[in-house]
Amino acid sequence: MKQINAEIIAVGTELLLGQIANTNAQWISQELSTYGVNVFYHGVVGDNLKRVADTFSQAKDRSDLVIVTGGLGPTEDDLTREAFQLVSKLDIMEHRPSLNKIEAYFQKQGMEMTPNNRKQSHVFTNANVLENKVGMAPGMIVSQQKQNWVFLPGVPKEMKQMMKDDVIPFIQEITENESIIESMVMRFIGIGEAKLEDEIIDIIQSQVNPTIAPLAQADGVVIRLTAKADSINTASNLLQDTKRKILERVGSHFVGINEETIDRKIISLLKEKGKTIAAAESLTGGKFTENLISVKGASTVCSGGIVCYNTNVKTDVLGVSAKTIAEEGTVSEACAIEMANKVRNLLNTNIGISFTGIAGPEPIENKPVGLVYIALCDENTQFVVEKCNFHGSREAIRRKAVLKGFELLLNYLK
Amino acid sequence: MKQINAEIIAVGTELLLGQIANTNAQWISQELSTYGVNVFYHGVVGDNLKRVADTFSQAKDRSDLVIVTGGLGPTEDDLTREAFQLVSKLDIMEHRPSLNKIEAYFQKQGMEMTPNNRKQSHVFTNANVLENKVGMAPGMIVSQQKQNWVFLPGVPKEMKQMMKDDVIPFIQEITENESIIESMVMRFIGIGEAKLEDEIIDIIQSQVNPTIAPLAQADGVVIRLTAKADSINTASNLLQDTKRKILERVGSHFVGINEETIDRKIISLLKEKGKTIAAAESLTGGKFTENLISVKGASTVCSGGIVCYNTNVKTDVLGVSAKTIAEEGTVSEACAIEMANKVRNLLNTNIGISFTGIAGPEPIENKPVGLVYIALCDENTQFVVEKCNFHGSREAIRRKAVLKGFELLLNYLK
What we know:
homodimer, alpha/beta, Alpha-Beta Plaits, Maf protein, 3 domains, six-stranded mixed beta sheet, 15 helices, elongated, CinA_KH (chains A, B)
């Protein structure tokens, strides 16, 4: 397979004003990555002829493949063609089939076609014209001096249609892509990004295929593995080998691969073991239950729960003893254990889990913000209790408490 | 006011792989635009020393202000400092206050600090160091040869904190911006972006100060007003005038301004009226309660709730009559009313609210995906019941149900 280095350039002042995010570049990058093209740069430039031309000149000097989105429309601001003409010296002509389509569109809508709309049918003389099946302006592939330029509309729907129909097949051709690219995301919980990288730094540094990239996410840390090979089989084997090596080091924190996020993993483990769960949530306010229920098919294993934010709900609805609360406080190991036990009994489930603690901003019961107790029990009334001291905002403390609950549950179910 | 031309550079291979979109550049662009700075380019470059340094070199030749996000973390991949050192020839030193903070963080968490975390405290010797109040790595402002470089973490929360606390005041200083810029975000619920724009299109088109920009968000629609004037007083008056004009048209959907999001507004209205609330949630799985409890100070008005995802929980814990469920089904007006009433009684609150419906992917009780009943009752057993037909994914249906609940509650409390 031929190595191709690409860059993606978006043309449009609306991006520089922050009116929209450059999600086109994100989407195209995902596609190029899958097909083994290296993306080295994204650029965004406004609707200014000189600056667009300068940006194109630079791309001409450094990239094998340049994908440009936007600036192909009918208005004065749409300058992509004019800017590329300055750089390429190519001639522009009217593309009759595209013009016919544009004229037909206006006729059908009963609208007058203003003269500037003709511009949308303009293409470079030697271009491979890409049909726009969902809009007006056609796309183009222009090959010049061993370099390939792809021009696409900025409207995401039109851009994606041309990428799928024309650009991806073209890329497979120019990359002489006979090799297969496979990737895998490994998900971890209860370990930081730095610590995880530290544990496997020698593996990361000593190998290039698959590549290994750790990344922190809201629900843990992921490692992305990307393998290149002559066959699916070889690529899969490369991924599996590396996965095994990584799991030997940090397997105790492993959740699952690809779409198997912690909430999905918990739901599938509960199903596998035939266990049901209910939660008693104080500071987390329903966040734990809501995360589980967001997984489709959760209804067979997650019955629901009691959000007992108020102390009265802990005693009157859940049935935690007033004595426990008077003697130990609501933020205590004893209260957490009773909460887990009571919610399990009340909702008649196999597992009960509870969260009680202080999200802040104010301390309660003379205990510090961030102190959280999480208890887990089952039908044999075996308890796991975790005392945690979390830091950060109210939101962060509540999120960390839920994640710690998932971690405890994962370890219990594994 | 001095004209400043800026560019924004994001460093991170995850962007080039399309794992995330460059929303940092969008957010920073909005801010710079508010403060009258021209943004001419966005760039994204991967974690590669030479390419990051090349990108910095180019920025050095063309921009007055360069804002760099990402690459300040603890791992080998974090190369922003090293790349800027190649370009600037500046020395790097350990910033003791930042290192103390990082060490304290690990100590407090009871976690071992791996050596690579020291790197996060490295700064350029002549830098103006920006405190990271929500994370570890500090930011920096480096001024060199009439050019200003701002280095910020890639984590959006950390980046935004430093922009607000340090970078915006710095920008006002270097732009010699003596005119006052005041902005206001007006929040709306229960109306779409297109409909809202349609209702006030003449106001939008006929005025330039303040500018009026509607934007759809996850919890409704916002309108951002930005006024420029010689004094705070004049700017505030301009904002208030426009706010009043807009409220005359769409006031019935108005939630609040700036940080007054719908959940905060609900909590403050509950406090104001001295009312408490409890929720019985089926398809929403605790999402409504969790949103309210995320607001600090919620404990005095939000007692908690019952997540009755399973039918048995609706009957056995909440006390919905088996007859209602047998005759009308769980997804019915009758069931919703009983749920709201029972949760109010059980948790002894002024208001009860309930959510029952079908988030999908499968229909239940021969009723379609997206059908949701929301009921609201108070001590006079007055009922508001809303039957909704929502469209979209499981996640979208659950989110829309919670928002509709907020809307009903807002109208009830207003």
